[in-house]
Design a protein that fits this description.
alpha+beta, three-stranded antiparallel beta sheet, 2 helices
Length: 89
């Protein structure tokens, strides 16, 4: 399983390997969901659909355990804390 890279603040720590040359522009997260029994061990997967401007869709997935951990880590970040304090939950 490929682990998720978590960056709590992309302004201070941007992804160096993603450039204008290798980036598909304008995709929109359109759907998210859980797929039960998706791993060999019977664990659920988190599935995300990104719609590209030309109408094609990209499916991406990771285990629910990795996604849940990433969401918790991002939620505990200073950026998320500032957003909660300034704008509410």
């Amino acid at each position: 399983m490929i682990p998720l890279q978590i960056r709590p603040n992309l302004e201070t720590a941007p992804w160096d390997d993603i450039t204008d040359d290798n980036l598909a522009d304008g995709g929109t997260i359109e759907r998210v969901g859980l797929l039960p029994n998706a791993t060999r061990r019977g664990r659920p997967a988190f599935v995300l659909v990104v719609r590209l401007p030309d109408g094609r869709a990209v499916l991406a997935q990771t285990t629910w355990a990795l996604m849940e951990g990433a969401v918790r880590a991002l939620g505990a970040s200073p950026v998320a804390d500032l957003d909660r304090r300034e704008h509410g939950s």
